[in-house]
Amino acid sequence: MKALHIAATGMKAQETNVEIISNNVANMRTTGYKRLRADFQDLLYENQRRVGSQTSSAGTIVPTGVQVGSGVKLAATSRIMTQGTLEQTDKELDLAIRGEGFFQIQLPDGTTAYTRDGSFERDSDGNLVTVDGYAVQPAINIPQDGTDLSISADGTVQVTDATGAQVTLGQLNLARFVNKSGLESIGDNLYLATDASGDAQVDIPGNDNFGDLQQGYVESSNVEAVTEISDLIAAQRAYEMNSKIIQAADEMLSTTSNLR
């Protein structure tokens, strides 16, 4: 009975849906995290009577036909790139992006990764790095005797030197993409560009619809507990309904096999 297989695909789809929801909930406090959403598609159809086929020599046609579907599949996990709430930390190296854009991070192999997580540190040489020690690009080196570090909304990094003069250390840029949902997640709050995302467009914060920077803030996750709970309940009910179909199909098969 095909209903067994069809319902099984539904149960598998909702099992994956719950896994995605659980990952969202697990990252509710992850800085810069963007929630995922499961997108589903129906599977191939069996045409038992093809729509539009002729039913007589006079040219009459079948108006609707008979099609029986074969279930559901997971088509995509769309990343929802909406703005998260900005949380004040008062830490001078913490940065939040308000609007469009990603920080550029150089990985150990030289690849450029992208992140919304602006919880930065400085290493033993004074370089601005992520919590994993990956260098922020463009490179910013903060001198040991520098005080009163300030990062403006347009990414200009300045400190006060030993003489009391204000010195500009460099300029932070942001990158954005035509299709930011096409970025590949690699963990550690990092993304890589793909053919789907397009090439990075780099500019100064605040220019040409790029977001600006907020020093002393970080961007929180955009996961909303109420949304995830309601999605979880809907997934659970869908799973239960598919299991009921399997139970009903099993009872029908049992009745057929017990016919005398």
UniProtKB/TrEMBL annotation:
Q: Where is the Flagellar basal-body/hook protein C-terminal domain?
A: 214-259
Which Pfam families does this one have? Flg_bb_rod (PF00460), Flg_bbr_C (PF06429), LlgE_F_G_D1 (PF22692)
InterPro entries for the chain:
Flag_bb_rod_N, Flagellar_basal_body_rod_CS, Flagellar_FlgE/F/G, Flg_bb/hook_C_dom, FlgE/F/G-like, FlgG_G_neg, LlgE_F_G-like_D1
Assigned keywords, A-Z: Bacterial flagellum, Cell projection, Cilium, Flagellum
Domain (Flagellar hook protein FlgE/F/G-like D1) spans 96-159
Q: Does the keyword tRNA processing apply?
A: no
Q: In what residue span(s) does the Flagellar basal body rod protein N-terminal domain sit? A: 5-34
* Principal location class: other
Instruction: Give the subcellular location.
Output: Bacterial flagellum basal body
Protein family (similarity comment): Belongs to the flagella basal body rod proteins family.
User: Which PANTHER family does the entry link to?
Assistant: FLAGELLAR BASAL-BODY ROD PROTEIN FLGG, FLAGELLAR PROTEIN
Q: List the protein's name.
A: Flagellar basal-body rod protein FlgG
Organism equals Roseibium aestuarii
